[in-house]
Amino acid sequence: MSEKHLQTGDELPAFGGKLRLFAMRFCPYAERSILVLNAKKIPYDHVFINLDQKPEWIFTFSPKGTVPALEYEQGKGIFDSNIINYYLDEKYPEVPLQPTDPLRKAQDKMLVEQLTGAQSAYYTAAFSSPSLTPSMVETYHKGLEVLQKELEVRKTKFLHGDEPGLVDYTIWPFLERFQALPLLGKQEFAIDKSKYDVLTKYIEEMKNVPAVKSYCLAPETHAKYIESRAKGNPDYNMLDTSAVCCMRPRKKKE
């Protein structure tokens, strides 16, 4: 479907009979659900929306107007990436993304929770630079250290095992965005290979996962979006369909 973000006054596209995900192209939470849909190879449509000028109909599917929201039947929706992803993994069990061991499942959830501080530091660094403090930088790196240590302990290619699972698809969207911060002059947020050797190897492995590769964006693209948002005019529609795969975006045609 189109990369255009629909806004106030735009009509809701006709329902096509598939699952439909309402998202915003640069939202890490929406990306979590996109990755799960891709990984499980579930047929779906997506509709991108402008979060500053929300179309009226989004509130039918998400009471607060947040994304992602999943239309699982025509006119019926569930919202929040965690709720959506657990629903998808249980509803469509053919490609299971969660461990069967209850303890490992709990450990995955705890790991995701331990990274929330790093995610908050990212948002502050990206969008509220004057509020950035040394303690936030420290919190960010503590999160990275926790993740690297967990990878070392598990001794697997991905956190889930030989193949990525829900924990990997939940964490990845922020790792994707963290790499944009040094391009914005925030060198203290760099993921230095000399310090994070296991983590940087994991990042490169994740970039090549088909579910990720078909949707992720290059650090330069994320940096460009962050800059537009920081100027008060987020450019939701800056992409063409070629600007994916975690590589440098193609130059726009003159």
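That was protein one. Protein two is written in the same sequence-then-structure order:
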Amino acid sequence: MIKSYTLDFCTLEIHDDYVLAVMNEGITVDKQNNAVLIEIAESHFDTPFVYITHRIHSYSVDPIVYIRTAQIKQLKGFAVVSKDPVQKTQTTYEKTFFNKEFWHFETMEDALKWKNKLLKKG
């Protein structure tokens, strides 16, 4: 890990080629939260990376944020990690707002394997 952030709505870990986010219980990821996340990501990555959210807690996402998130030049994909079947359904809906790779995984291990394959593709 290169750096970690503890924000009022989440914790973020910045790694060499990915961001790992864990949102706080009960929050809503809205345009303001998303702007903070984008600013942090863009300040750390000038090479391709993947955003991974580990959905440990229950929270909401305004799906409109994905439209702006997809505009991050170096962002190649977005992964949701959760064993909750409701999250798998939610991921299917959310990915309609994101015009890059967007997948659901049940384990961090699977998400990291996918990240490696995606980034190797270029």
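The two ends are 22 Å apart (CA to CA). Keep this in mind for the problem set.
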